[in-house]
Amino acid sequence: MMKGNARTKQLRGKMRETLGKALGDKSMQRTGRGEQLRGKAQELTEKAAGQIRHRTKH
Fold first, then answer.
1. H-helix or E-strand spanning residue 24
2. What is the pLDDT of residues 30-50, one digit of tens each?
């Protein structure tokens, strides 16, 4: 699984969002939030795929 990669995206996004807030850069904040959401979506997709594999024993 690639949970580490998904969590890395979330962390990187959080850092970008926080830096954007500190600098007053709304675009950077939005980009960071988007990256966090993509990481979360990836994490949930991987979790669902793992559950399906477990239930189908593949």
1. none
2. 999 999 999 999 999 999 999
